Amino acid sequence: MLNATMPAPCVPTEADAIDDHALVRAAVGGDTLAYERIYRRHSPRVYAVLWRLCGGQAARAEDALQEAFLQAWKALPGFRFDSSLGTWLHRLGVNAALMELRANAAWQACDAGGEGWDSVAALASVERCAGTTLDLERALDTLPPRARAVLVLHDIEGWKHQEIATQLQMAVGSSKAQLHRARGLLRARLGETA
């Protein structure tokens, strides 16, 4: 059984970047062990953001991770190191998760109306034991999918609203509104005052 907590991503070093060049060349040449090393080095960081985008659902995050690395395997011969390998893999992972979220019927249903607001408000009003604090990750999981995606991409991953709007196929203003909504819902969920 998988642990429901998100793994800590590893931070690549300069030596890793140099090694990535050699690993990419070897993998493109057919060395599957080199590709396995690429996967082991970069998958924890990619998985961490996918886990958040998928609302803490490990199975969905793993599916998106596998899809991203399958796409990477196919596209690796064309990779030119315009960005770091980690950044490229990260972007492939986010794209895979967002495509899965867009395809999911719940994606549209949760954002259709005030339904998401009501469920979060009900969760926030539940009586809690004294001294119990809600984990930010669990609170993040309660957000409607689009609001969660915008918050994760903007506040955690550092994307600009234009990039988010392009990826989520929405207007820049909608991205900003979703971010404001997500922050407000998080504050309500965590019991903070604005």
Account of the protein in words:
It comes from Stenotrophomonas nematodicola. This is RNA polymerase sigma factor. It holds the Pfam family Sigma70_r2. Keywords: Sigma factor, Transcription, Transcription regulation. The protein is built from 10 helices and no strands. With 194 residues, it is mostly helical. Helix 1 packs across helix 2 (32-53), helix 2 packs across helix 3 and helix 2 packs across helix 4. The chain is elongated and about 50 Å long.
What is shown here, in short?
The protein is mainly α. Helices cover 70% and strands 0% of the residues.
Task: Please specify the SSE layout and strand pairing.
Elements: H1 14-28, H2 32-53, H3 58-75, H4 85-103, H5 105-111, H6 115-125, H7 136-141, H8 145-156, H9 161-168, H10 172-189
Helix pairs in contact: 1-2, 2-3, 2-4, 3-4, 8-10, 9-10
